[in-house]
């Protein structure tokens, strides 16, 4: 495979094993591509827009594909394009965060969040699981599901995202039980990661700023946004650091069932388990400036 989407050539021969990664247009997905290649993997890098992948260095270990998790035709095309690769792993990383108070959330916004983060993720899993079974040697097949620390706990004003990541955790744990040792299922739970938070958020919240005007949430949303950025800058990992932990799990002879990434993710889980519910909720309201 060449770096050109869908093009083929016979020489030189590509890598012996391939991994498909979703959401490579930016963030963690983008940061995963080169470390996987450096570790000897051929990478099928996917993003909604093929143009977002153009700056990835060419090579016979890279295959670019346009994949929109909400469009089954693009998934079918990606599966067909990978049919002649010895693809033995998938990293389901694509997703986005819908922010806003649940009271003002529209049904179509919740559906869209689940269509990408949950239904889309499971669709990719189901589409490539037969290919992994076919290609993988004993103990080689693996699927890494990128959830979040918000798959184990919830924060205010991120209800749709919280719910979608809780669902990803449940699906991954169920799939592990069902496939047994045939394919390793790894649940990845990062904490805060330094990304273009405000820029990415504005693409999905539509007219939310108008909806909150004059409501009890107007001031709260502003404070919440400021606090999220502060916490991300203070405690967030660089995407490259997060990607390094994921690649470590991908390469492990015996992959872990769960990879918690970041001190915030580790300690948040511990605190939630130890604190009484009222104290935990008080701390969250104070942290995110919820009045």
Chart the SSEs and their pairings.
Blueprint: E1 18-21, H1 27-38, E2 42-47, E3 62-66, H2 72-81, E4 87-92, H3 107-135, E5 142-146, H4 159-179, E6 184-190, H5 197-202, H6 208-212, H7 218-235, H8 239-251, E7 258-261, H9 263-274, H10 277-287
Parallel strand pairs: 1-2, 1-4, 2-3, 4-5, 5-6, 6-7
What attributes characterize this protein structure?
alpha/beta, 291 residues, 13% strand
How many H/I helical runs?
A: 10
Number of domains as seen in the coordinates: 1
Strand order of the largest sheet: 3-2-1-4-5-6-7
Helix and strand sequence = EHEEHEHEHEHHHHEHH
Helix content: 40-55%
- How big is the Rg? 19 Å
The CATH superfamily turns out to be: NAD(P)-binding Rossmann-like Domain
Query: What would you say the CATH architecture is?
Result: 3-Layer(aba) Sandwich
Tell me the total number of β-strands. Answer: 7
The first-to-last residue Cα distance is 55 Å
Into which percentage range does the β-strand content fall?
5-15%
CATH class: Alpha Beta
Instruction: Output the structural class.
Output: alpha/beta
What is the subunit organization of this protein? single chain
How is the biggest beta sheet arranged? 7 strands, parallel
| pLDDT < 50 runs, ≥5 residues | 4-11
Q: Mean pLDDT, nearest integer?
A: 91
User: What is the general shape?
Assistant: globular
What fold name stands as the CATH topology? Rossmann fold
